[in-house]
Amino acid sequence: MLICGICDKKYDFKGVGEEMFRLIRKILTWVVVLLAVAAIGYFVVLPKVLPIKYREQVEKYAKMYDVEESLIFAVIFCESRFDPEAHSRADAKGLMQVTTETGWWVASRVDYLDVETLNLKDPETSIAVGTWYLQWLEEKFGEVRPTVLAAYNAGHGKVSQWLSDNQYSEDGYHLEEIPFPETNSYVKKVELVQKLYKIFYRL
Fold it and tell me: Are the CB atoms for 80 and 95 separated by under 8 Å?
């Protein structure tokens, strides 16, 4: 209790201190709750919404072929949602949805893969083949990401045709327009998902 000598008023600082203590305790409680929710979101919800499975294999082949991990994860996410048994109507198989024809073509150029025993539904094989193919496409198309992704989806032969057509490309590297709506949507989706992997997993 403090008494003012001029106005003769009494001030109860004890009550003020208790009120401040309660406020601080309430704030700290909310901070703890928010941190707990954030932790649950990051460690429980995020891996379900944006999986990061097969990380050891992705890291291995990303390093081997100098391809961004975030790109590999984004392609797997958009192609198969991390289902190694995925099989499309176009005969694309496995995590990275590689066709049998493309798989054989890649295997014939890689020492550690055997065309005769190639299993594209094996996660490591799919990641190895898909990552090698991404690297090959980056070399072929000058690392222009949208063009590379369009080629992964529609085929490099088809994209080469588009690039040679002034209606779709002015410089032979960048596509001003992607004539296939499905491929156009695919490119945008992979680019968006790759950004999310970079943001949330710092890849």
Answer: yes
Q: Model pTM?
A: 0.80
The domain 55-201 is placed in CATH, from the list 3.40.640.10, 1.20.1440.60, 1.10.530.10, 2.40.37.10, at 1.10.530.10
Residue boundaries of the structural domains of the chain: 9-49, 55-201
- Residue the block writes with tokens 């198969």: 80
Residues 6+ apart with CB under 8 A from 119: 125
Give every CB contact of residue 197 below 8 A, 6+ residues apart in sequence: 50, 52, 69, 70, 73, 74, 77, 203
Contact 93, 86 (CB under 8 A): yes
Q: What is the tens place of the pLDDT at every residue in 164-176? A: 999 999 999 999 9
Cβ within 8 Å of residue 83, ≥6 positions away: 95
